[in-house]
Amino acid sequence: MESGRLSSTQQALIRESWQKVSSNLLQHGIVLFTRLFDLDPDLLPLFQYNCKQFSSPQECLSSPEFLDHIRKVMLVIDAAVTHLENLSSLEEYLSNLGKKHQTVGVKVDSFSAVGESLLFMLEKCLGTAFSPDVREAWTRLYGAVVKAMSRGWDARKEGE
C-alpha cells in the first residue's frame, strides 16, 4: 500500500476531519451503516448473530452485536488514519480482513457502496468543512484500504 499516494496536505486534511468524527465513533458509524443499508439493502442478510436474521435495517442497527461490528469498522478506519505515513504496515491485517469478509459472503463490489456511505457520513459530520479536497483525500485513503483488503480475495482465489 503506497502512502506516497497521499500528499502531506491530504494526510493533514484526513487527520483534521477524522478528529471531529472520532469524538463519537459509534454515532457516526451508525450514520455510515444506515446509509449503506439504504444504498444496498441486499447486504442486510450478511449480518447474522446467533443464527438470527434481522427483519429490518433498524433491527440490525440496534442489536448489541451489530453495534460492536460498527465499533470495529470505525476502529479500522481509525487505524488507517493513525498510520497514514506508513499504510503498508496495515497491509497484512487488511488482506486478512478481506479474507474474512469474503468468507461471510461479502463481494468486493460491495465496497463501492461502503465508500459512498463513508463519504456520506463524513459530509454529514463535517458539514461545510467537507470540501472537495477533503473528499478527494478520503477517496484516496479508502481506495488504498480497499485495494489491500481485496488482496485477501485474490489470495483466497489463488489458494483454492
Automatic annotation (TrEMBL):
Catalysed conversion reaction: Fe(III)-heme b-[protein] + nitric oxide + H2O = Fe(II)-heme b-[protein] + nitrite + 2 H(+)
Subcellular location: Cytoplasm, Cytosol; Mitochondrion matrix
Claim: Metal-binding is one of the keywords in the record: yes
Alphabetized Pfam families for the sequence: Globin
Annotated GO biological process: cellular response to hypoxia
Keywords, in A-Z order: Cytoplasm, Heme, Iron, Metal-binding, Mitochondrion, Oxidoreductase, Oxygen transport, Transport
Domain called Globin: residue spans: 5-154
Any one of the GO CC terms: mitochondrial matrix
InterPro entries per the UniProt record, alphabetical: Globin (IPR000971), Globin-like_OT (IPR050532), Globin-like_sf (IPR009050), Globin/Proto (IPR012292)
GO molecular function: GDP-dissociation inhibitor activity; heme binding; metal ion binding; nitrite reductase activity; oxygen binding; oxygen carrier activity
Function: Monomeric globin with a bis-histidyl six-coordinate heme-iron atom through which it can bind dioxygen, carbon monoxide and nitric oxide. Could help transport oxygen and increase its availability to the metabolically active neuronal tissues, though its low quantity in tissues as well as its high affinity for dioxygen, which may limit its oxygen-releasing ability, argue against it. The ferrous/deoxygenated form exhibits a nitrite reductase activity and it could produce nitric oxide which in turn inhibits cellular respiration in response to hypoxia.
PANTHER family: BLR2807 PROTEIN (PTHR46458), NEUROGLOBIN (PTHR46458:SF19)
Family named by the database record: Belongs to the globin family.
Name of this chain's protein: Neuroglobin
Organism, scientific name: Terrapene triunguis (Three-toed box turtle)
The organism's taxonomic lineage, starting at the top: Eukaryota, Metazoa, Chordata, Craniata, Vertebrata
Gene: NGB
